[in-house]
């Protein structure tokens, strides 16, 4: 068994913070892209289609746009954090053990 040192815990904490920060940034970028990609057709359809003009009030439009942005954020952030954790896990398992 290897002993846990303060330095190794600090290193793991820094790695976890970096992984979560990467996930947040990737999720934010995806949310911005999804907002634009959803807002343009939603607002255009309300202007051009009689059915949409009648049935989609401003609250419904905002709900459509924000739902797409929220889904994009959480999906991309989750995938980024998991990919980063997987990469770091493989790196840690392939790293030679210096304590033996």
Task: Name some characteristics of this structure.
100 residues, mainly alpha, 0% strand, rod-shaped, membrane
How does this structure look, described?
With 100 residues, this protein is an all-alpha fold. It is built from three helices and no strands. It has helices at 6-48, 50-55, 58-94. Helix 1 runs antiparallel to helix 3 (58-94). The chain is rod-shaped, with a radius of gyration of 22 Å. The model has no long low-confidence stretch (mean pLDDT 88). The chain crosses the membrane at residues 21-40, 60-77. It holds the Pfam family ENOD93. It comes from Rhynchospora pubera. This is Early nodulin-93. Keywords: Membrane, Transmembrane, Transmembrane helix.
What's the SSE blueprint?
Blueprint: H1 6-48, H2 50-55, H3 58-94
In short:
The chain is mostly helical. It has helices at residues 6-48, 50-55, 58-94.
Average pLDDT, all residues: 88
**Number of continuous helical runs:** 3
Give the H and E element order: HHH
The main sheet comes to:
none
Oligomeric state of shown chains: single chain
Q: Please state the CA-atom Rg, rounded to the nearest Å.
A: 22 Å
The fraction of residues in strands falls at under 5%
* Main structural class: mainly alpha
Which runs of at least 5 residues are low in confidence (pLDDT < 50)?
none
The geometry reads as: rod-shaped
Give the % helix: over 70%
Number of strands: 0
Spatial gap, N to C terminus: 9 Å
């Amino acid at each position: 068994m290897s002993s846990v040192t303060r330095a190794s815990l600090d290193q793991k904490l820094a790695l976890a913070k970096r992984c979560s920060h990467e996930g947040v940034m990737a999720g934010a970028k995806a949310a911005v892209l999804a907002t634009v990609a959803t807002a343009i057709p939603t607002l255009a359809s309300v202007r051009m289609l009689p059915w949409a003009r009648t049935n989609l009030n401003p609250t419904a439009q905002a709900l459509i746009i924000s739902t797409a942005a929220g889904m994009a954020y959480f999906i991309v952030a989750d995938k980024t954090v998991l990919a980063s954790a997987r990469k770091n896990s493989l790196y840690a398992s392939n790293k030679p053990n210096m304590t033996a």
